[in-house]
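[recover] target loaded
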């Protein structure tokens, strides 16, 4: 019932929550940058990865990771990344593979309005596997920070990452006149569910703010109603002929994590 408290805890999670030490140690919380960046990110980026993969230009890799962390949850292209990081495209592809293998990032591929894949994937989304890494590199965020939307979306995706049954089925959709943050496809490549992640209550009264999701939902008979996450609003509403579910982002994140844990317990038993 205490959504305000849950949202506060959720902001805490975005800033510190990926690492138990940061949750329980006041010392670490006072300087998360030192602990999370030095002891975790740098250890993997600057020591383990280069040794494992024989990477010689560590600064280049570090610079790329910083760019990806800053833009977590955004659509990127090899072309743009190559220009901004001044790294050749074939080297970039290798670096992205290394960072994924080290479980620092996850790439998500794009589908169109018909849920069809692109033959040449020119663009993709990159998520940090843990939103806390962005806060460690660029400073903590509050509920009104300009990057909060990206981090909320990263948090939602990072919970799905632990669900082996679903994670490989997740895509984002974008076409000329719209987009959807998360789309899950079944083994026949038909949409199962679609989610638009927002950190705002405005969509609850304004369907124009998630028109892409509505257009996508009209085209596909999905297993469950399309979901829009909010800051605090919840419930079902008929919007432009589509039944839409609304749920607070913090609660949705918790629910995905809880369901994943329960599934794991069932799999073990």
């Amino acid at each position: 019932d205490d959504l305000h408290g849950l949202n506060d805890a959720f902001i805490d999670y975005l800033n510190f929550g990926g690492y138990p030490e940061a949750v329980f140690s006041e010392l670490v919380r006072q300087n998360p940058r030192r602990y999370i960046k030095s002891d975790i990110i740098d250890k993997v980026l600057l020591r383990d990865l280069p040794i494992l993969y024989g990477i010689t230009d560590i600064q280049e890799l570090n610079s790329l990771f910083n760019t990806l962390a800053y833009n977590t949850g955004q659509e990127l292209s090899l072309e743009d990344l190559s220009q901004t990081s001044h790294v050749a495209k074939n080297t970039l592809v290798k670096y992205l593979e290394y960072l994924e293998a080290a479980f620092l990032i996850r790439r998500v591929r794009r589908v169109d309005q018909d849920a069809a894949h692109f033959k040449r994937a020119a663009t993709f989304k990159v998520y940090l596997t843990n939103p806390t890494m962005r806060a460690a590199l660029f400073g903590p965020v509050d509920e009104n920070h300009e990057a909060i939307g990206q981090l909320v979306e990263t948090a939602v995706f990072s919970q799905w990452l632990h669900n082996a049954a679903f994670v490989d089925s997740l895509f984002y959709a974008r076409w000329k006149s719209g987009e959807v943050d998360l789309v899950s496809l079944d083994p026949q490549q038909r949409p199962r569910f679609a989610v638009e992640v927002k950190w705002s209550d405005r969509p609850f009264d304004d369907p124009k703010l998630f028109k892409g999701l509505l257009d996508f939902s009209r085209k596909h008979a999905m297993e469950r109603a399309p979901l829009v996450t909010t800051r605090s609003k919840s419930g079902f509403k008929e919007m432009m002929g589509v039944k839409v579910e609304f749920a607070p982002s913090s609660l949705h994140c918790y629910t995905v994590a809880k369901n994943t844990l329960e599934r794991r317990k069932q799999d073990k038993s």
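[recover] notes: The longest strand covers residues 178-185.
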